[in-house]
Structure formats: C-alpha cells, structure tokens
Amino acid sequence: MTSAAWVERLHHRRQSVHQEIWDLLDEVKDPEIPVVSIWDLGILCDVTLESGQYLISITPTYSGCPAMDTIRADVSEALNKAGIQNVTVNMKLAPAWTTDSMSPLGRKQLLEYGIAPPENKVGGCALTPEQGIRCPRCGSEQTERISEFASTACKALFRCSNCLEPFDYFKQI
Amino acid sequence: MSEVTNNTAILKYTLRLADDSLILGHRLTEWTSHGPFLEEDIAMSNVALDYIGRARMYYGYAAELSGDGKTEDDFAFLRDEREFRNLLINELPRGDFAYSTVRQLFIDVFNSLYLPKLMQSNDETLAAIAAKGIKETRYHLRRSRDWTLRLGDGTAESHKRMQKAIDSLWGYTHELFELDELEQQLADQGVGVDSTALKAEWLATVESILSEATLTRPEDDWVVKGGRTGYHTENLGHLLTEMQFLHRSNPGCEW
Hints:
Structural class of chain B: mainly alpha
Structural class of chain A: alpha/beta
CATH architecture of the largest domain in chain A: 2-Layer Sandwich
Order of helices and strands of chain B: HHHHHHHHH
Number of domains of chain B: 1
Largest sheet of chain B: none
Strand order of the largest sheet of chain A: 4-7-6-5
Number of helices of chain A: 5
Largest sheet of chain A: 4 strands, mixed
CATH superfamily of chain B: Ferritin, core subunit, four-helix bundle
Number of domains of chain A: 2
Oligomer: heterodimer
Shape of chain A: elongated
CATH topology of the largest domain in chain A: GMP Synthetase, Chain A, domain 3
CATH class of the largest domain in chain A: Alpha Beta
Helix content of chain B: 55-70%
Number of strands of chain B: 0
C-alpha cells in the first residue's frame, strides 16, 4: 500500500544532499517496536545542515508518546557513533503525523512482528474498524475489537475468532 | 480592549489550554492500576498520556512565549492553585467509573468541536497542537460514547450511576462556553476560539448521545464557575499537592 504522504517523504529524502545521514538514521528503531525504523514509521521527517550543525526533525506519533525522549537520544547516539557530533534533534509538530507516512516496508515489518498494520477499512473513516482487520498470525478476517486502546495509545486491542489469539492493531490516524 | 500586549495575551491563553489538559490528564492517571479491568485500565492511562502530551506541547510553547528562561516544568510544578486557570470540570475528583466516563464524554464532545476551530488559528503553534490533538480526540470520543451507551442502557445500577454522574457534572459544563475579555480579544484576532459559538452543537450532540443511552439531560438550574479567574474548588489544591510534591522536594530532578 502506498499513500501520497509516504511518496512525498520518499521523494523528499531522495532530493536531500545528506544521504549518508539518512542512511545512518535507518539504524534507529522505534523503542516500542524494535523491528521498525523511525524512518519506516514516519517519525523521521527531515535532515538539514545549518551553520555546521545537523538538524534532525522528528515528529511524535501521539501527543503523549513516551518513546520520544528515547528516540531523540537514540538519534544523537547513532550519529555520534559514526563520528558526527554536531547534532540537534528538533521536535516538529506540523504537519501532524499520520499512519499514511509509514513505508510499505514498515507495514510489512509490523505484520511480521505480530501487529496488524493500519488499514483503511471503513471508507475513509479514521476510527478503528469493528471488523475485517486481518489477524497477523493466521490471516483470518474474523476478528473483533476488544478495546480502543492497547499496549500503547497508537494501537487498539483485537481478538481473532479463528485462532483465538489476541493481537494489537496499529490504528489508522 | 485590554492593555496587555498580544504576546502576553497568547501566553495566558496557552496556559489556560495547558492547565485544562494537565489537570484532566492527571485525574485520568489516577485510574492507572485502579481501572475496572485491564483493558480499561490501559485505555484510561493512554488517554491520560495524550492529555499530558498535549499539556507539554502547550507548556513548551508558553515557555517559549514567556522568553524569561521558564521551562514547561516551571509552569506545571511551581505554580500554586490560584495561578492555575483550568476549567473546574477538569479538577473534580475521578469519582466512580461512571463519573469519569461522563466527564470524558462532555470534554471529548467539547474538544471535537473546539480543536477544529483552533486548527484555524493564525497562531501556527496553537494550530499545530490542535491538529495533533483532534486525531486523538476522535478516538477518545468514540470510547466515551461507547461506554455511555453501554452503561446508560445497561443494568439498573449502571444506569443509576450514570444519571447521578450527569446530574453532578452538569452545572460545571456551562463554564466551557464562557468567554472573558482576554479570550474575546484573541477570538476577534483569529488566534483563539469563540467557545460560546460551540454551545448549541455541543448540546445537540450530548443530548442525542444521552437520549440514545436512555439518560436524561438535567435542567440548567445550577452553575459553578471560576477556573479561568483562579477560583477553584477545594479539589485542585489536593491534586497539586500530590502532583507537585516530587518536583518541589527534589528541585530539578530528572528520571
């Protein structure tokens, strides 16, 4: 699944003159979902160089996302390890993060990790669908929502009626 | 027209919005490990996180506007009760699950109308915070609406508790739609939101949900206000005592 927001991000990255920095930052994973990079989740927004200082812009998924402080530190550490010391990590609020910024790879990695990736099931409705979310374990669409919020604010809790396993669904926002 | 400069006016307004989010967020954290069951415990804590995150963005902006070296923590932890400007409904004790559900419903419907207007603000930071918040509020509202329907149209006991909560909270909702000189000035300038204009739609939405849940909208026969001028219920002082204790005892501590 490709979305306009993702294509725009990819285009922006390809235009950037700081390819080596973007590539280094591919190593920074989301602390809550350690298989997906902050680039693939859409958290990493921009890399610029201003007066000799690398400015890395990141955006929070949800306002209260407790992982942001860790991500900020991880970004600096990843660049410092590569010998780049002049780094400032900047929190960018607009445009607000959307699940549409996720990369196709990120969606695939979520699924393999056992988290159902965001789906636009109910005709453009931004809210958690009641049904039809595919179980990441057995692939059945016979699933039901148990709670609007799961292990983190960005996920809802579902249960599969086929294999009976509960699973997290990454909500579309 | 007030004498305050525009920057000071925006700072004051931002602090009001920040205080609303922080105080309600703190009340919601009081459910952590006390939820009726695990899923709801987690849901309440997640909603709390959204509010506290929103408060941090507002306080961060307030710190920037104040330009005197203050940080978000100074605003949250080093102001006293009378300096807080949150609306009273946010500071009331969490009560039982019905009470917290009804409060969330009232506030969620309000935010679902308020934030889209704030997104139109010509202050870019306030508009950006609102754009972030509205996405979360849609989920919050869906949850509080679900629970209102389930409990209102549930057992005799759950219905009774929901109606009691509605009756106890109703008099605090009028304050949501008050506009003082400061907010009027900012609304006129396209910075703030004219909340008086939201009341009719708020009432229509809330009444429709209550009616579907077999609950009754109370009469408007009592009103309590004062939050925006710093006159609080006795509950805020107790809340701050607990919330600010660690920071005041260990100034500057981080963890």
